[in-house]
Amino acid sequence: MEKLRIGMVGYKFMGKAHSHAYRDLPMFFPNIVHPEMKVICGRDESGVSAAAKQFGWEEYATDWKTLLERDDIDYINAPSDAHKEIALAAAKAGKHVFCEKPLALTLKDSREMLEVVEACGVKHMVGFNYRFAPAVILAKKLLDEGKLGEIYHFRACFLQDWLVDPNFPLAWRLQKEIAGSGSHGDLGAHLIDLAHYLIGDIEEVIGMSKTFIKERPIPAQMSGLTAKGSNSEEKAAVTVDDATLFLARFANGALGSFEATRFAAGHRCTNSFELNGSKGSVIFDFERMNELQVYFTDDDEDVQGFRRVLATDPSHAFAENWWPPGHTIGYEHTFIHEVVELMEAFRENRQPVPNFRDGVKCQQVLEAVDLSIEKRQWIRISDV
Ligand code: SOE
């Protein structure tokens, strides 16, 4: 396959991130299958036509169903709250599918999605983009090589602060029927996926959550993480969590703690984790995504301490295709790496990773945490 012809549903925050990835990929990764940006789709014609022009798509459409009828489209990318409906229809039409996270609004829906894509024999991928930061891949390599020894702790936080203002309007991310959950599914989902990727299966969880601001102004306009209130005084209920915290026991014996919040003033996008093992530790913070802090217990005592490793040398994942060492990369590059994995999966005729299986695994933990909050008790993952 020389080209993969793409139809994408959604053109705002994630739509832009994915469009950028498709567009930049051929320049930096010339030797792999390339995406052809056929059609971008959105409900608002003026918005989607402007996006098509700005992002470099051949055409735009306002009804995603038209994408399914076209035989010049191989692959549907669906970063929207309508994941399930679009993914099922696309797979049944023989299209490969990429979905943003969380895979679905419920575990039941995500299981159905997995069943259908597998039955239809299409490729499927889910957008856990932080796995593709070279420094995260370095942490995984150190773990796999046993350089951190037996793992005792996984400590993860995803902290944002865009909801601290009580007048921030009731954007779609704060509405359960559209978003499924709040910080838990939006931010916690990334931490859970990183935990699965780095440490392995989680056996049981117990959590707590809170909605600090119960009502917010009705939005007049929203896009990405910004929204504007309308002129009226009218407010409506926030139906998702503002913050969710939970503890976890991993199958390999490690202990985990997870915190996802949109109320951590000063933290714009602190997606961080720390791992402590018998032979050392690593610390990652997305706001410094090119770096991994590394500590080894067998360093000479007089030089012991965390060292900062810059994951930009050619020996690091993806780095050879970018800039000379020390010339750092950013958020958008994680999406490009995601597409590299997808294209490599086509070339090697295998499923890309992470795929809907990982999406379901993540959703299982999300739902187990919800259940533990409801019942105020530990919940085994295998019981949900
Ligand atoms: C918003 O909270 C958000 O953009 C998430 O939806 C993304 O998945 C995360 O990467 C950054 O924050």
Outline the structure in words.
The chain has 384 residues and is α/β, with parallel strands linked by helices. It folds into 2 domains: 3-127, Rossmann fold; 131-351 and 362-375, Dihydrodipicolinate Reductase, domain 2. The chain has helices spanning 13-28, 45-55, 65-69, 83-92, 107-120, 134-144, 176-179, 183-198, 331-347, 356-375; strands at 3-9, 34-41, 59-61, 75-78, 96-99, 124-126, 151-159, 202-210, 215-217, 219-223, 226-229, 235-237, 243-250, 255-261, 270-277, 280-285, 291-296, 307-310, 379-380. The strands form 4 sheets. It has a 9-stranded mixed beta sheet with strand order 18-17-16-15-7-14-13-8-19. A 6-stranded parallel beta sheet has the order 3-2-1-4-5-6, with helices on both faces. α1 (13-28) crosses α9. The longest helix has 20 residues, at 356-375. It is globular. The two termini are 40 Å apart. The mean pLDDT is 94.
Short description:
This protein is α/β, with parallel strands linked by helices and 384 residues long. The protein contains 10 helices and 19 strands. Helix 1 packs across helix 9 and helix 8 crosses helix 10.
